[in-house]
Amino acid sequence: MNLRRSLSTLGLTALVAASTLTGGAAVGVAAAPAPVCVEPAADAHAKAKPGGSAKTDPNELTADQVTANEKALQAALKARGKAPAQAATAAAAAVTIPVVVHVISEDGTRANGNIPDSMITSQINVLNQAYSGGTGGAATAFAFQLQSINRVTNAAWYPIVYNSNTEKAMKAALRVGGAGTLNIYTGLLSQDLLGWATFPQSNLTTYDGAVILAESLPGGNASPYNLGDTATHEIGHWLNLYHTFQGGCNGQGDQVADTPAEKSAAFGCPTNLDTCKSKPGLDPIHNFMDYTDDACMYEFTAGQATRMLDAWNAYRA
Ligand SMILES: [Zn+2]
């Protein structure tokens, strides 16, 4: 049912475990499967499963995967001698993330992926507004600085096919920097997807990064997803955030205390939506980690900011 949905890719880590991060840590034996978030694009509405839920949608993270991820996060923090972050420190800590944007084009034309620099710089501005609290949410520790734009013309990589051998080969060929360098790949995406991203993990591979539909960048034609918040959302996953509807109305949901529970993804920009009536608060439809239109989403919470800083300290610092 999901317009933007999370997809666990069992076996993914094993498939890329032999790779090595360029300039980063050598990759060892594959551990737990790497969850990946996948965001179908606007015209994927036809694929929606009405009434679907995390329970019936095979693409949602399972409770067991969330439990494993949470254990891994705590273990990684401990291994690095880091205490869990507090909200105040999350806002105060200044982390500037270098961003490398790989622009994948079929033939070098604007129509086939070769978006202009102006769209990329606008995207970086959108990220900095979102992560600084400039759009109305909590300030996070993160800022983004464009390090380089890498223009690639390669018809074999266009579209970028999710979880394909060619996607893995593309990233192995192009990814630069260590665990703290954000590699973004833009292009046309398979399956009408808006984007996907990897969650952080100790055993990082060259698969790490965010893949974003080029037309979802500011100025693109993927309305109502063309204000740049697909990247905002995907980078939230890259910094370990789950969807706000993860886990539905049950348990710890998205593992963030100040995002109200939400039974399932919200679309468009609904008013007064309350899908978990036994839990406090309306659905967090304005949160970047829901599935609403770009114009509807404008905030991270303080709890999400803290969770992202923990993930940074555990995996990417
Ligand atoms: Zn997502």
TrEMBL record:
Hydrolase among keywords: yes
UniProt KW Transcription regulation keyword: no
CDD domains referenced in this protein's UniProt entry, alphabetically: ZnMc_pappalysin_like (cd04275)
GO molecular function terms noted in the UniProt entry: metal ion binding; metallopeptidase activity
Record keywords: Disulfide bond, Hydrolase, Metal-binding, Metalloprotease, Protease, Signal, Zinc
Record-annotated Peptidase M43 pregnancy-associated plasma-A domain positions: 221-310
Signal peptide span: 1-25
Alphabetical GO biological process terms: proteolysis
Pfam families linked to this entry: Peptidase_M43
Family designation: Belongs to the peptidase M43B family.
Descriptive protein name: Zinc metalloprotease
Source organism (scientific name): Catellatospora bangladeshensis
